[in-house]
What does this fold into?
Amino acid sequence: MKSALANGHRTEAGFVVFKDSTAVLSLRPSAEGQHPFVVVLRQKLIQDGTLVERDGVYVFTQDAEFSSPSAAAAVIHGGGANGLTAWRDNTGRTLKELEEA
It folds into this structure.
């Protein structure tokens, strides 16, 4: 399984994932039971063409805005995720660390 590599930034409305970012193909086993919103949101993005399968990952065909960094990270990881710790800058600092600085 290929891992995802995504880029984005915080917005007033939540978080934008940039075009050409990737997301894992498979949902985590816990996604349907514990994080059904992730399943629904990923399916919507696949149906509207925002996420397309390519080379073992989903690729964002356009920038996509999410309600929060965690919602964006959950779609990319295929299950629940804490966006404040999942998103990191080029030096490895988490979004939480950057916002507390």
